[in-house]
Specification:
By secondary structure, this protein is mostly beta strands. It is 0% helix and 62% strand. Strand 4 and strand 5 form a beta hairpin.
Length: 120
């Protein structure tokens, strides 16, 4: 089992910034990567940014150069710094934890999500 808790988010003006935090509490689970997803209007979750245990990062094209994922997967804490926010960044953002259980295979865990709204 893995508990995942996000914080941050809220309301920002276009061009503004926000920071999200995610802390995971794994139990008998090896975390190999953590990432941020956001839910599109049709209900799909799209990958925004991901960081591996080795520190490698991946970004969606829509956020490259504006968003930065940081933190340390080894201590189960990551952040998402969001700059130059646009109205189309408005969404519910989720933290994802990717890894393997001691007694089961690969599995993903999600936090409860946090709302980000970009509006003047």
């Amino acid at each position: 089992q893995v508990q995942v808790v996000e914080s941050g988010g809220g309301l920002a003006q276009p061009g503004g910034s926000l920071r999200l935090s995610c802390v995971a509490t794994p139990n008998a689970f090896t975390v190999i990567a953590m990432g941020w997803y956001r839910q599109t209007p049709d209900g799909q979750r799209e990958l925004i940014a991901r960081i591996s245990q080795g520190g490698d990062t991946t970004y969606a094209d829509s956020v490259k150069g504006r968003f930065t994922v940081s933190g340390d997967v080894a201590v189960y804490t990551i952040y998402l710094e969001m700059n130059s926010l646009k109205p189309e960044d408005t969404a519910y953002y989720f933290c994802n934890v990717d890894g393997y259980g001691d007694t089961f295979g690969r599995r993903y865990y999600w936090g409860q999500g946090t709302q980000v709204t970009v509006s003047a």
